[in-house]
What we know:
With 268 residues, this protein is α+β, with helices and mostly antiparallel strands. 40% of the residues lie in helices and 21% in strands. The radius of gyration is 27 Å and the shape is elongated. The chain starts with a helix and ends in a 7-residue tail after the last strand.
Amino acid sequence: MSSPDIAEMLEKSKELDRLRKEQEEVLLEINKMHKKLQNTPEAVEKPGDNSLSKLKMLYTQAKELSESEMSISNQLLGQLDAMVPAGGAGQQRRRIEGNEQKKKRMKVDSDIPRLSPSMRNQQEFFASLKGEQVAARVAQEDGEKDEWVIVKVTHYDKESKEFEVLDEEPGDDEEGGGQRKYKLPWSHIIPFPKVTDLSIVPEFPPGKQVLAVYPGTTALYKATVVQARKRKNDDYTLEFDDDEEDGSLPKRMVPCNQVVALPDGHRQ
């Protein structure tokens, strides 16, 4: 094995180290973005928000770094194959290849938790919504108002990142009044608090604007919390916008699991 060959391999090894460090930095940023989107999913609705574009750019960068690492690794393997002495070297070659494969597996296994624990949890959470009723924005992006209704999740497509939902309330404007189906991004979905675990129901203070199911309907409208709840399972007392009767807004009681945070930029 000549000195130039060794020097070249050392340079490639240094390049691998650099690529892996860059990957760790990119993956750290990806996980930060996932945490941000999990904690404040409504952020993507804000005008000028570039969270999803930034996340796409980070994934593209991670993919390119991974491909570069694979390319250099293959070059190093090729050099090692060429340097292995002929005769009786088969076993040594297999051992080297086996060790390289083991290193690759170890790297992949060690990267999985760092790569996307939040993303994996997010995907599992979205998939777990199948069969659940959620609030969904079904109006067009260029519509004058945001139309939020109760729908049932029938499927979550991990490839397209879209929910397939069913509006089980027959539509008056549809021919035949049939049920309507939609494909929606996760930014158009708001899960309701679980009835089985009201201990984690969000607490909205008096004066807080929320999105809530209007009593007797399957539609959600903007409302204001009138008074604080004494217990976690108490109904919210709300005043709905544009719900004026006899010159005043009547107070409506709405179950706590049918009240969610008002999305930023909500149009009504």
